[in-house]
Amino acid sequence: xxxxxxxxxxxxxxxxxxxxxxxxxxxxxxxxxxxxxxxxxxxxxxxxxxxxxxxxxxxxxxxxxxxxxxxxxxxxxxxxxxxxxxxxxxxxxxxxxxxxxxxxxxxxxxxxxxxxxxxxxxxxxxxxxxxxxxxxxxxxxxxxxxxxxxxxxxxxxxxxxxxxxxxxxxxxxxxxxxxxxxxxxxxxxxxxxxxxxxxxxxxxxxxxxxxxxxxxxxxxxxxxxxxxxxxxxxxxxxxxxxxxxxxxxxxxxxxxxxxxxxxxxxxxxxxxxxxxxxxxxxxxxxxxxxxxxxxxxxxxxxxxxxxxxxxxxxxxxxxxxxxxxxxxxxxxxxxxxxxxxxxxxxxxxxxxxxxxxxxxxxxxxxx
Length: 367
Fold this sequence. Notes:
alpha/beta; six-stranded mixed beta sheet; nine-stranded mixed beta sheet; 22 strands
């Protein structure tokens, strides 16, 4: 039996960080329906993130969203100081120096590090690692706390959440969308596509052209090491984007920084990617791996130019894109959601978004 849930101003598809944050921004101004395919919001990418806030993460095009979000995250208590260290070998010195120059010109805080400084920050670092870029502002993000903050805020302001509701039909009728899933349906003039790895498939269901938003698999493993990582060990990243690791409650979280093309679904780690992660780690420090305790994978979805997609579809009326947020979607969530809500509802800019140019993120940028 199908239940009619109601008429809404906006139906947001996907209740991960993107959909939950957009709902929280829209709900004070509109009647919002938040539709989630899984049993619980945030099951996929949001629930599997080893997120950190890093000024340089995502590149120069994402930098304005990151910086605008940092103050919100800090004042909300969602950040814990960590520090980030991008390291390289002798042949990488020019790359490290260019990395520092590029981002300091944008306003980031980075400092060139010598071999002696690297050794102080990362005990047991192998001798071939001789140069680095220190990012003192890098911080861990309380991902679950931020996600729950947005879900709770949207609920307080009237958002209706439906889970176990995988959208099967999107039909445009008389200026309204009919949104249907197995046991329910609703109507709204605007559908916001916050479906992550499923964003292109949802757009196709709505009769829009897919934008080429592709899911890429990222692997993470949890190791018990000897020595155990110090609580104040920074986030350590390879300047060539081939590994990163950080401490987590006495253990080490490690990734080979992989981006393996995959399909939308319940991502699982491959044994080869786990082996690559461990091999790369053993070439960075001389620590002993005592046990491989956990392994998991998540999907990060990128548009072809690796920038997020925020805005109304140029050809399909009432379809709003809020997708393609890659691995930076959590650290940019506050500014992205505020900007998305303003674009969707025609609201004026405020202090959080005043300095952000939305045009690079428009879906109209694609041919």
